[in-house]
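Researcher: I've got a protein sequence and the SMILES for zinc ion. Could you write out the 3D structure of the bound complex as structure tokens? I'd like something to compare against our soaking experiments later this week.
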Amino acid sequence: MKSLFLALGCLGLACAPVQRPVRAEARTGAFLRIIGTNDFHGALEPRADSAGVRLGGGAYVAAAIRAAAAECAPRCEVLLLDGGDMFQGTPASNTAYGKPVVELYNELGYAAAALGNHEFDWGIDTLRARMRDARFGILGANVRYADGRDVEWIPNDTIVVRGRARVGIIGLSTQQTPTTTRPQNVAHLRFVDPAPVVDAHARSLRARGATHVVVVGHVGGRCSETCEGEIFDLAQRITEPVDAIVGGHSHSLLNTTSRGIPIVQARSSGRAIDVLDVPFDRSTPAKGEIRPVLTAQITPDPAAAAIVARWTARVAGEFSQVVGNLSERLSRNGVQSPLGNLIADAQRAAAGTDVAVMNNGGIRADLEAGEVTYGELFEVQPFDNTLVRLTMRGSDLRRYLQQIVARGRPNAHVSGASIVYSRDGAAAGKVDTVLVAGRPIDDAASYTVSVNDFIAAGGDGLGPPAAAIVQALPIIDRNALRDYISRLPQPVEGPRTTRIRMAGEATP
Ligand SMILES: [Zn+2]
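Model: Sure. Here is the predicted complex with zinc ion in place.
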């Protein structure tokens, strides 16, 4: 019986009492349809893109998944996977530590998910509690203890039966995890090279009877003329046959192959889903599609809508408070944006420092023009990071600000300072000019810098100089932004000056 329940996507107790007749087509499906999501980030409700088109939302994603599953029956068997970073990012999800997303995913019958870096944001105990709630494995085969031992509470792989296929699924975490969650939460863990891990588990899965091997990895990449990133490095170095890789983490749209392995990723926050058809007999190449989840064209799924409504109602009062008015939409796109400047200004004001540094990776959503609610600010800064005041000498400050452009392009915003750097040639990443309050830095003087506690702990490679004095402040970053916006003349404009710019680039 077990394989029948697995074939129907019923991995949990809720399905067990229901005995359904074996459908003839369950044994005759010609291909495996992998439906994938990734980086859902608690996005229970739809969100607008820069053109005002509404995308995603749990009830719409659910309807899109169920439609994709229904449309190929009975020729297909469906495997529903998530590429990780499921929970972190919205008031409804965060105040319940990801429970709403697990409930939604249980309802939809996910087979497995990858263990994303942000799954660690609320600590190991919370993650383990969500793993217990989930009727699907949250897999991280390349996570180890510092001494190399496998982590006993993180599952590595699983086998699910789909028609005549026994699909082995291997889950992976990004090697960037230590600098992209609270570093202290994973200090005892190591995120090892996934390629040999995939090879070892693929062999083991086949020895256990798997007919197909699929990787679901919180590993990403980008494609322009060429494709680059962790997921492509992985595909290049796997030696065992793998039928598909469902990715995540980079929030990009991927629908390609690398060394013949199909690779998909569906942006983020439920804006799209992967639909990848893999013929069971591998007689023809797999066919992938990234489908946008356009709310205007989809009837929301009633069961998922009920879950979303229940969880969002819990936070409606607290987070609907209006904190100010914006004259324009503030996007987080680009390495320097008015939204990033505004956040850095808010943190400098709240901490009362000479300079503020705000990591780009911590700016999680755009703000729409017009009234801004506290809930919208929550989605911009969902992490409950607190502010930290650093005191350092001018010579250290210059080196510290240099770190922001060390990778050839800025990975942070600043307030109170301006930086001119070189990007090309031998001088790449070198800083030409640094000004604080419009003046060159005095090496011997003392300066104060506000950062968040994520940066202060070494996140995004922006840890403070060893000699800096570190003082934790009891200020949540998002509240600094709320207070700052509410104090500014209304409607608020985003500060447009490009404070970190390449040599030769015009100053707007
Ligand atoms: Zn991630």
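Model: Residues 1-26 have pLDDT under 50 and may be disordered. DSSP finds 14 helices and 29 strands in the chain.
Researcher: Great, I'll pass this along to the crystallography team.
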